[in-house]
Amino acid sequence: MNTLAQTFLKNGGIACDVSIIKEAQNILLFGGFVEGFKRILENMESKNNVFLLSPLRFNPYNFTQFVYEVGAEEAVVALLAYGFSASDVGIKEVEGLKDKALQEFVKTLDVGYLSSECNFAEEELQEIVKGYVERGLVLVVGEDLATHKNASNIAKILALLSVRDLKIVFLDSKVNAVSLEREEIKPLGDLKSYDGLVVYVPKESKKGNILEVSKQFCNVSKMQDGAKVKVKLESHQEILAQMQCNAILKGMVGILWISREVLQKNFCYQLVSLSKVA
After folding, report:
1. Which residues does 39 contact at the CB level (< 8 Å), separation at least 6?
2. Which strand (E) or helix (H) includes residue 125?
3. pTM score, two decimals?
4. pLDDT above 90: residue 40
5. What share of the chain is helix, strand, coil (3-state, %, to 5)?
6. pLDDT band (50, 70, 90) for residue 19
C-alpha cells in the first residue's frame, strides 16, 4: 500500500475494491497513465462513461479528457471537492460531521483562482459533477499522485470526498485497515510553473530510452524525429534517448520511457532541456 493510500485511510477515507468498476456507469481516471489503467479498461461494458483527468494529451481510447496544467493535481482535487460538495447526493445523517469538514474546507478555496491557474474550467468540472449526480461515479486513483510533493494533502482532501456517495478506488494498492490519525489539511500553496519542455515518466517502461513526443514538441525543441538526444532532468540527471514522434500525442508533454527509479521518488512529470547527440 503506497503512502498516498495510507494517508487517505488514516484520515477517515473509505476505499473500494477495484471490482466495483465493472458495474459503474461513470468512471473518472485521475493520477495515472492511461495505459496504466489498461487492466480495468478491458473489462468495462459499453455503457461505461469514462472521464480522463490528465495533463498528458495521450488518449488512444478517446475518453472524455480534461487537460490541466502539469503539477496542479492538488488544486484539481480541491476543485473536485468544491464540485461534489455542492450536491446533496449520498449524504447520510451519520456522516454529517465528515460532511461538515468538507464544507468547511471548500469555504477556504478561491475557486476562480484555482480554476484559472490549473486550467481546469468550471464547465469541465460541472460535466463530471453532472455524471456523478445522475448516475454515480467511481474515482480511480493511479499511483502518480504518490510522487507529488503535496501527496499528503491530496490524500487528506480525497478522504473528505469519501463522505459522499462517491466510490474511490486505489488502482495499484492493496488497501488494508489502518488506525485513524487525522491531520489538518494544509492551505494550498502557489502552483509551480512548468513552462517549457516537460516529460512524463511512466511507472513501467515498455520501450528502452525512447522520448515519445508530439509534432509540436519536435518543432519547439528543434529536434527531428529519430534524433538521438541528451535529456537533462530537473534533478540534473542526464539520459540518452531517441526522439520518436507519435501522432496520437498532442501538446508540450512527452513520454520518456525510462525506469522511474532514475527519478529517485521525485515527481513523475519533469521539466527538461534537450541537446542533440552528435
Report:
1. none
2. helix 122-135
3. 0.91
4. no
5. 35, 20, 45
6. confident
